[in-house]
Write a sequence for this structure.
């Protein structure tokens, strides 16, 4: 069965004026226009294509790579708005339609939005929604502290960065745990800091707890070497100064230089730290 909104591996059946007709093992067919056909091919070859509906609502194949796939989230640009809804650029010729009822707030041409793409059961059309929360669920969370995850930053608040975890759960990176410039739409590797009793999930971008000491220590060593062996920060420096200089919290910094000091790799002086 040909799956709309996903990649399909199909067989080249025949060549016509419009392009190549492809088919699956259930005798379903669709067109791959000539402009997307491979440079070399033979009838009977298999080809991997993305399948969706064209402007006339007919199944069609393409070798272009979309910015979002079925049941996933993407950060998309709004290219048009009319009386029916908004249209998003998702990397293909036909725009992805987001009805007004699926807009968390009215979309504007030229703005960017986190959009979830799904298959509308009533119309069998691929549709987008910026009401992303309704597709996320924290009722059952099997993640544990220290687990590495993939996150998509959805929006920034005074508390921190709200994220989608592994395309399934809502999470938060608290502002005090952000030591780098992150923005809406960023896809990042992250780590579970805590799963709370109410299944709210705290996330950090560095391995939490003791597991972050070694990477931070190595980072500080590299910074020391790049700076000629001396950095003007120490265990009594202001937290903001440490964050500005090294992009980490004072707590992480103190643990890291403590490790380096015990290993006799640095000296801690009144005006900073120095390579031995």
């Amino acid at each position: 069965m040909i799956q709309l909104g996903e990649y399909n591996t199909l067989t080249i059946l025949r060549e016509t004026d419009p392009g190549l007709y492809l088919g699956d093992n259930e005798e379903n067919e669709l067109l791959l226009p000539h402009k997307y056909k491979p440079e070399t091919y033979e009838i009977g070859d298999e080809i991997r294509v993305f399948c969706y509906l064209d402007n006339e609502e007919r199944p069609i194949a393409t070798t272009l790579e979309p910015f979002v796939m079925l049941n996933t989230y993407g950060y998309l640009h709004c290219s048009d708005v009319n009386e029916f809804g908004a249209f998003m650029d998702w990397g293909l010729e036909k725009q992805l339609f987001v009805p007004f009822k699926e807009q968390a707030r009215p979309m504007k041409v030229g703005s960017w939005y986190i959009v979830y793409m799904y298959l509308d059961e009533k119309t069998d059309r691929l549709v987008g929604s910026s009401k992303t929360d309704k597709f996320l669920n924290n009722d059952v969370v099997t993640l544990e502290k220290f687990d590495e995850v993939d996150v998509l930053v959805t929006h920034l608040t005074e508390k921190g960065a709200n994220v989608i975890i592994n395309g399934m759960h809502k999470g938060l990176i608290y502002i005090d745990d952000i030591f780098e410039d992150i923005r809406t739409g960023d896809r990042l590797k992250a780590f579970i800091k805590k799963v709370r009793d109410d299944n709210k999930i705290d996330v950090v971008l560095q391995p939490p707890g003791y597991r972050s000491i070694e990477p931070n220590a190595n980072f500080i060593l590299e910074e020391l070497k790049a700076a000629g062996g001396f950095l003007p920060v120490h265990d009594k420096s202001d937290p903001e100064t440490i964050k500005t200089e090294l992009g980490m919290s004072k707590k992480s910094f103190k643990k890291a230089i403590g490790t380096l000091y015990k290993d006799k790799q640095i000296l801690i002086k009144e005006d900073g730290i120095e390579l031995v």
Observations:
- The chain has three helices and 18 strands.
